[in-house]
Design a protein that fits this description.
Elements: E1 2-9, E2 14-23, E3 31-39, H1 46-64, E4 68-72, H2 79-99, E5 105-107, H3 109-116, H4 121-131, H5 141-165
Parallel strand pairs: 1-4, 4-5
Antiparallel strand pairs: 1-2, 2-3
Helix pairs in contact: 1-2, 4-5
Length: 167
């Protein structure tokens, strides 16, 4: 049966997202259906940023109706950044429950990079861009590394489940 997975690389400035489609029985071809960035305007205060983010996430979930939602786990950069990032993730988690009645799955960026043997954001970008050459041909690292991170997270989740289903 075809399933849709929506993956988010959450940031308080620029959140990358991607929509993948796959067959959850055969785990054959994984199609990249759509992708984009949720840009947060820097001159907003935090509450307006969260509302802006909520609106865009709500629309993505409502339009695409994914079966699975994946979010990158956070890691400690500094306390202030972590506190802000957790608020954005909280909004995303809440909207997933409201719109889809789905609990998002969290994936570790270290686990993702380890599975695909990529050590940096640049290597992750190159790996994903080479996998989806036609769809991502005009994407540059500066504008698209959050998108490619979200794609790699989705691929990780699908591959991990494929491995579990094969024993």
């Amino acid at each position: 049966m075809k399933k849709k997975l929506l993956s988010f690389d959450v940031s308080s400035i620029s959140t990358g997202w991607s929509l993948l489609e796959y067959d959850d029985e055969t785990y054959g071809t994984i199609k990249l259906i759509d992708y984009g960035i949720i840009k947060i305007l820097s001159d907003y205060d935090l509450q307006l940023k969260l509302l802006w983010f909520k609106y865009h996430v709500h629309m993505l979930l409502f339009i695409h109706k994914p079966d699975v939602v994946v979010i990158e786990e956070t890691y400690l950069k500094n306390v202030k950044t972590l506190k802000t990032l957790m608020q954005f993730i909280g909004v995303l988690n809440l909207v997933c429950g409201e719109i889809l009645e789905v609990t998002p799955e969290f994936v570790s960026p270290n686990s993702v990079r380890s599975m695909f043997k990529v050590g940096s954001k640049e290597e992750a970008f190159d790996y994903v861009k080479s996998k989806y050459k036609v769809k991502l041909k005009n994407l540059t690292f500066e504008e698209g590394n959050d998108i490619t991170d979200s794609i790699l997270q989705g691929l990780y989740r699908i591959c991990r489940c494929k491995g579990e289903s094969n024993g």
